[in-house]
Amino acid sequence: MATKVTLRQKKISKGRQSLYLDFYPAIPHPETGEPTRREFLGLYIFEKPKTPIDKQHNTETLQIGESIRQKRENFLNKPEIYSEYEKEQLRKKEKGEQCFIEYFRKLANKRKASNHDNWVSALNYIEAFTNGKLKFADLNEKFLEDFKEYLLSTKSKKSDKTTLSQNSAVSYFNKVKAALKQAYKDGILQNDLNAKISPIKAAETRREYLTIEELNKLVKTPCNNDLLKRAALFSALTGLRFSDIQKMVWGELEYIEGQGYFLNFNQKKTNGIEYYPISEQAVSLLNEKGEPTAKVFEGLEYSAYHNKHLFQWIGAA
Question: Does 212-316 carry CATH code 3.90.15.10?
Answer without folding.
Answer: yes
